[in-house]
Amino acid sequence: DNNRYAALASDAQNEQLQQIWLNMLYMPIKPVTIGMEYIYGERDTLTGKSGVDHRLGFMARYNF
Q1: Which residues contact 56 (CB under 8 A, 6 or more apart)?
Q2: Alpha-carbon distance 35 to 13, whole Å?
Q3: Phi, psi (deg, nearest 5) at residue 16
Q4: Residue 13: which of 39, 52, 41, 48 has the closest Cα?
Q5: Are the C-beta atoms of 7 and 13 separated by less than 8 Å?
Q6: Is the pLDDT of residue 51 over 80?
Q7: Most CB contacts within 10 A, which of 9, 23, 24, 32?
Q8: How far is 4 from 25, CA to CA, in rounded Å?
Q9: Contacts of 5 (CB under 8 A, 6+ apart)
Q10: Which pTM value belongs to this model?
């Protein structure tokens, strides 16, 4: 905390950031793929604020 970067800290500057990504793909028939993605993240800023993020995404793909 005694360097210039920490002294100019804003809420956008991370002290610590952790993320976990989980992906699953399923191919019910040969040209079709269905997928799901879950992202979990935590962060602590240099100003002492913290936050948690949950994201869920889906996809479908047809190969021709």
Answers
A1: 36, 37, 38, 39
A2: 33
A3: -145, 140
A4: 48
A5: no
A6: yes
A7: 9
A8: 45
A9: 13, 46
A10: 0.70
Tell me: the pLDDT tens digits for 2-50? 677 767 767 678 889 999 999 999 999 999 999 999 999 999 988 888 9
Res. 62: pLDDT tops 70: yes
- Averaged confidence pLDDT in the chain: 90
Tell me if 15 sits within 8 A of 44, measured CB to CB: yes
User: How far are the Cα atoms of 10, 38, 43, 62, 63 from residue 32, in angstroms, in the given order?
Assistant: 46, 21, 37, 5, 7
Q: Which pair of structure tokens corresponds to residue 38?
A: 């879950």
